Amino acid sequence: MTSNTLGLARSLLPVTGTWAAPFAIYMALLSVRVSILRDEHKQTFGDRLTGSRAPSGTTPETDPLYLAVRTHANYAENVPMVLVLAALAELNGGRPVVLSTILGVFFVMRVLHAEAGILAKGKKSMGPGRFIGASLTLLTTISLGAYSAWLSRDSWGLLIGR
Question: Looking at beta carbons, which pairs linking 116-123 to residues 24 or more positions away fall under 8 Å?
Answer without folding.
Answer: 118/67, 118/70, 118/71, 118/74, 119/67, 119/68, 119/71
